[in-house]
Amino acid sequence: MAMALCRHMAEERGIPVRAVSAGYFDWGPFAREAHPFARRAVEQLCGGDLLRGHRAARWNHEMVRSADLIVVAEEWMCADFPVSTAITMRGLAGQTGDVEDPYGEDFEVFLECATELRALLLAGWAIVTGKVG
What is the pTM of this model? Predict the structure, then answer.
């Protein structure tokens, strides 16, 4: 959801941002689509199904090498990335703590999470765009 929201915000502002999404777990040989509640939440906030066609991917070292900024959901994840490029979603807004994964919850929890992600991205937009170019 954060990737789609970031792309949407950048497009609205005419800013070139290459945002990709990657997770920690390998789900095997079958690609996983975005959760239907995630798709619906992003659609409600952005006006379009921006996660249509999205497939989950596991992060890899090439992604890390090519990244100007790595934004993670949970603080412990920062330890896996270069200090100069890693920040938490809450860190974008000058906060501490984790953004909880809504997986397994109902649509309202997904919508609350997407709304929070958008607010954190907005609060840290200068950090996001300051790493671009």
Answer: 0.91
Give the domain extent around 107: 2-130
Total domains in the fold of the chain: 1
Q: Model confidence over 8-41: pLDDT tens digits?
A: 999 999 998 889 999 887 666 666 889 999 999 9
Q: Is 61 left (phi over 0), alpha (psi -120 to 50) or beta?
A: alpha
Q: Rounded CA gap, 107 and 43, in Å?
A: 12
Closest by Cα among 83, 87, 55, 63 to 74: 87
40, 22 contact by CB (below 8 A): no
Spatial distance between the Cα atoms of 7 and 16, rounded to a whole number of angstroms: 9
What is the CATH classification number for the domain harbouring 124? 3.40.50.2300
Residue-wise over 27-45: b if at least 16 C-beta within 10 A, else e?
eeeeeeebbebbbbbbbeb
> Residue 129 corresponds to which tokens in the numbers above?
């765009």
